[in-house]
Amino acid sequence: MIYMDNSATSYPKPVSVLRATKNAIEKYGFNVGRSGSKSALGCADALFGARLALSTLVGTQPENIVFTYNATYALNMAILGLAKGKMSIAVDRFAHNSVLRPLYRLRSEGHTVHFLDTDAEQDRVITSSLKKLLAKEKIDLLVLTHTSNTTGKVLPVRKLADMAHAGGATVLLDASQGIGSSQIDLSLLGVDILASSGHKGLYGIMGTGFLAIREGFSGDVTPIITGGSGILSGSQGMPETFPERLEAGTVGLPGAISMGEGARFIMHEGIDAIAEHERTLRHTLLSGLSVIPKVQLLNERVNANSIVLFNIKNMPSEALAERLDEYEIVGRAGYHCAPLAHRILSGLNPDYDGAFRLSVGYFNTRRQCDKVLSAVSKICGKMN
Amino acid sequence: MDLLRENDGFFLDLGTITYAQKAKRLLDDNGIASTVGKSVGRSMGEGCSYGVFVRGRKKDEVLLLLRSAGYKIN
Predict the structure, then answer these.
(1) DSSP A166
(2) pTM beyond 0.90
(3) What is the DSSP string of A63-83?
(4) What is the CA angle A59-A76-A108, rounded to 5?
(5) Is A247 on the interface with B (CB under 8 A)?
């Protein structure tokens, strides 16, 4: 099987992640922060190690890492937890539904949501759009997508964050797609809160994600999920201290360990090396696809790391996915849960109905790319 | 455990398990051996609290280090 759906979930996982996760399941079966037994304290030490690795990767303190069950949980916790009064919120159009749907909910509750003009290739469109918006009104929250899961385009996060901060806004970043293959550091990017999945570029197991909060961030993220925290048990509310404030209930320790080990793997291999490998494979795919008749490339001009988005003329993307599955090639068809991003790509084409995405990962090879190109060529050839 | 703490070293209550673990790493990095433990003698309404148990070092030295790292210890 050739797996090229790494933007959804990375596969396979590094051996070190598999070993650490298996070890956690076998040995760390005791609740953290509830007991003083040696066994529980051993689990706490392992969990803290994962927090420390993640905090090192994204540039914050370990206590500012909040473990969640995926990026969707993390984004909901941040977006809904930051909502106070009647807010004015701005968001780019690359946003995934895990961002858009909480925002639609807030809009239905009376908050204002502005969708910034976002171009598939040009940074100046979104910077200009935000500038115009900030000149008109105060924005309380800016939600940004680091890397589009549809095209692989990376937004000018630092510039946008600086503009938003100058206007007094809090900046939340969805780093799910960039983490592991881009330098994602809270202080370097100038963002206040970062949400990410653990199972994509971090190489953690499925059902993992986290929130990272900038050191010194003074805003309040009100817990939307409350429950046991191990501390202040007599209190009716969640504690003020992080991460316990946002970690109600038992933490998914094996998953957290897998993310921590994934972070160590990334730091060991080097972000630049991972990105370079993915870019090389992407270039191979783009070059090969560009000479196959009927292939319509959709993001070839985007300066992306890993994503190749395309269609075959007169073939729905779902049909292409089915045909490629016959060659045991896995990609992803459709809208990729990012409907606004696809609207940018579709332009005025009424027949546009999504696209097929190949997203290469660190464990893909040149040989696999050649096999994909051969399969696409055969599929196109049979259409004649 | 309480007797051990009183006679052979000292225990600093740091609140959450996360802060206790962080303090232990900081002390390790500075060559000060410590173990994380649960604070005893608190009311159940307060819930769990954790800290570090340090032997063979002066309390003032450890307090200074932790306070310089941002720990607020009474």
Answers:
(1) H
(2) yes
(3) GGEEEESSHHHHHHHHHHHH-
(4) 140
(5) no
